[in-house]
Amino acid sequence: GNKGQAIALLKNSLLLGGEMDHPLTCYSLLMLGQIAFEDGKYDDAYTWFAQATLSAAEYGDYGVIEEGFRYCYLIHVMQNRKGPLAELQPAAGWAKRFGVRELQVSLLVLAAENLAVLRQTKPAAALLQQATALMNRTSLMSSEIGVRLMYTTA
User: What is the rounded CA–CA span in Å between residue 34 and residue 120?
Assistant: First the structure.
């Protein structure tokens, strides 16, 4: 299809009645981020993905939060930005406060991977220990998050 037309439709869908977010806003933001990412417009993509996480948090869409942060992290690393992605650990704390263990663990593993890439192995190991403690005796250990944990631990 026509990418320009898709972008215009997605942008028009962001606000209900042109005034307020709605439960599907985060999906439009995520799609706008994916389009920008595919076009190599990484700064724009980062902004869309970050906005998607905020909108998704408002409506409790934890899958979009996770995906938005994964893309933000990927762009952060691809662009060789300084230091770790600062939002990951506070977001994991937010997930803990709201009792969303799967999101909390996923963000902790992502933060640990980020630190490991930066050769900050001690703080990375501490985050991996936190994630492991939260995953033990749950189905999360045999999930995709568990695989990411094992990969990052290695």
Answer: 29
Band (pLDDT 50/70/90 cuts) for residue 94 is very high
Q: How far apart are CA 154 and CA 150, in angstroms?
A: 6
Cα 150 to Cα 37: distance, rounded to the nearest angstrom:
28
Is the distance from CB of 105 to CB of 146 less than 8 angstroms? no
Alpha-carbon distances of 38 from 26, 67, 81, 117, rounded to whole Å: 18, 15, 19, 23
Separation of alpha carbons 149 and 132, rounded Å: 8
How would you class 151 by CB atoms within 10 Å of its CB: exposed for 0-12, middle for 13-18, buried for 19 or more? Answer: exposed
Q: Which residues pair with 126 in a beta bridge?
A: none
Q: Which two tokens stand for residue 28?
A: 């439009």
Contact 44, 7 (CB under 8 A): no
- The Cα 129–Cα 148 span in angstroms is 13
Report if pTM > 0.85.
yes
pLDDT of res. 16: 77
Helices 101-117 & 144-153 angle (0-180, nearest 10): 30
Assign 54 a pLDDT band (cuts: 50, 70, 90): very high
